[in-house]
């Protein structure tokens, strides 16, 4: 009897997992950081401090999010790449001799020699 697999195991073994991992990894490197707010001269100091606080919070969230994308991308790309590709390929028993043409090595050599 086959055990039920968790959604994470199914995701890791899915043939698209390496592609998703690569996209997440690229996103973690290519996404721009939040830009600091441009504070006008006439803005009250309390509001300016609040804007900077929100900016700092956004920057921390951005760093955590990109770290998560990077880690998840590495897991999907690293764990599933070899295993998933091997499972996605057709099994050796799936190709039969009737599908492949019979090749005579001597006939090929003679044809090459005649060229």
Structure keywords:
mainly alpha; elongated; 4 helices; 0% strand; 64% helix; 115 residues
Poorly predicted sequence stretches spanning 5 or more consecutive residues = none
* Helix and strand pattern: HHHH
**Globular, elongated, flat, extended or rod-shaped: what is the shape?**
elongated
Number of helices: 4
Structural class: mainly alpha
Number of strands: 0
Helical content band: 55-70%
Mean pLDDT across every amino acid position: 80
Report the span from N to C terminus.
60 Å
The biggest beta sheet is recorded as: none
Work out the strand percent: under 5%
Give the radius of gyration. Answer: 28 Å
Number of domains: 1
Description:
The protein has 115 residues and is an all-alpha fold. It has one domain. It has four helices and no strands. The chain has helices spanning 7-12, 17-30, 45-88, 105-114. Helix 2 (17-30) packs antiparallel against helix 3 (45-88). The N and C termini lie far apart (60 Å). The relative contact order is 0.16. The model has no long low-confidence stretch (mean pLDDT 80).
Layout of strands and helices, then pairs:
Elements lengths: L6 H6 L4 H14 L14 H44 L16 H10 L1
Quick recap of the structure?
With 115 residues, the chain is mainly alpha-helical. It has helices at residues 7-12, 17-30, 45-88, 105-114.
């Amino acid at each position: 009897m086959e055990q039920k697999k968790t959604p994470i195991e199914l995701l890791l073994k899915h043939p698209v997992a390496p592609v998703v991992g690569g996209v997440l990894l690229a996103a973690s490197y290519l996404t721009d950081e939040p830009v600091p707010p441009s504070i006008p001269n006439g803005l009250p100091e309390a509001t300016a401090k609040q804007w900077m606080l929100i900016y700092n919070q956004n920057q921390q969230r951005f760093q955590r999010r990109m770290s998560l994308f990077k880690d998840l991308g590495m897991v999907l790309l690293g764990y599933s790449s070899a295993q998933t590709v091997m499972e996605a390929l057709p099994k050796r028993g799936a190709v039969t001799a009737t599908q492949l043409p019979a090749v005579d090595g001597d006939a090929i050599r003679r044809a090459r020699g005649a060229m």
